[in-house]
Protein: cyclin-dependent kinase
Amino acid sequence: MLSVSFHDSDDPSRRYQILERVGAGSFGEVLRAVNTTNGQLVALKKVLLRKPDKGLPDNVLREIKLLQIVDHPNVVKLQEVFPQGASLMLAFEYCNTDLAQILRHYPHAMEHHVAKGILQQMLRGLAACHAERVLHRDLKPSNVLVEKGGVVKLADFGLARRDDKAGPYTHTVATRWYRAPELLYGARVYGTGVDMWAVGCIFAELLGKGPLIPGEHDIDQLYCVINLLGTPTEAKWPGMKDLPDYHKITFPEMTGTPLQEARHNVVSLARVCLQKCRRRTFLGRCIYTRGTRESS
Structure:
């Protein structure tokens, strides 16, 4: 159960012994610590409150609330929240590594049974999120944690939000290489498809030991998507011409790249999986436009 402490005479921060700093970002920093009351390792996310007089930032409130809603073995668990000076501390269960680190140190393309196991766990965690109408909106290898026993956990819900099926939402979410094409075209209404697209990109990266669509900027990212999958049509992607930025960006007609050429070392079983995902890509797979919806 999540513990939230704001007026506790027993300072919660005293329960934690800081061991090391393991990461940092625009929000603040992440610390590895041990809970001295039970000996468990935790990851303390220290969020700097730049305007404490105005309360907690919306994204922090959303992250806390949504992690209270989603309870699943493949989603990181938020254990406690407490203030510390001008910061807010979020205590998460500790995981040893993440997919980004594993990919950096893996000597070759991942064995298909390992990649398949990781994919299955990611999808289970994502299914739990989507069942509660929670969109993660920033899935990428560094946000997929891995425990010692190989258990995969989705993490970093800083950009997550509840899907109210109405919008408008911001389209400036997700890291570029994992950003769905509807977001690149400026969609303000979308759904679970943006997460499914990211999972597909991560799966391909596990198999190919490198990002599938490494665009250098947003327009180049969209070019790389179309170069891989082929130029979409209104028949395959209903409503695409209604997307806010569709008419602002023009590319030459492209037929697409066979997946065996895009990822030469993808084994046949995984290639079939990716091809099935590819066929669904512009056939109403994960696309949410103004007139097109999909259920989670």
The chain has a mean pLDDT of 83. The chain has two domains: 3-93, 97-281.
